[in-house]
Amino acid sequence: QVQLVESGGGLVQAGGSLRLSCVASGNIFGINVMAWYRQAPGKQRELVAIITLRGNADYGDSVKGRFTISRDNAKNTVYLQMNSLKPEDTAVYYCYVDPYNTSPIWGQGTQVTVSS
Q: For 7-38, what is each residue's pLDDT tens digit?
């Protein structure tokens, strides 16, 4: 069984920064894709950033140039560095991990609130 533990969410003023972390543990034999999604109240869940095993990354249009996704394969960890935060970035952020040996799994979510 694979588990995800997210951390790093919180309350920050507009223009500030936060760093999210997501650690995967359990019966893992390598991880293909790792990603962050977010869901604001009344809106659909949307892709924020995604990164492959080799480190190729892509971002949602609304966060390009402000957010950076990275991963540490030795630690089965994915990070999301969020800079120049805006009130519209307020959402619950979910980690998504696609291991090679099991089905993709989601984290429990961490709240990010950006005040104006």
A: 999 999 999 999 999 999 998 899 999 999 99
Give the C-alpha separation, 54 to 56, whole Å.
6
Which of 68, 66, 90 minimizes the C-alpha distance to 9? 90
Whole-number Å distance between alpha carbons of 40 and 5: 20
Burial of 89 (0-12, 13-18, 19+ CB in 10 A): buried
Per residue in 45-63, pLDDT (tens digit) is 999 999 999 999 999 999 9
Name the amino acid, one letter, at 82.
M
- Give residue 11's identity as a one-letter amino acid code: L
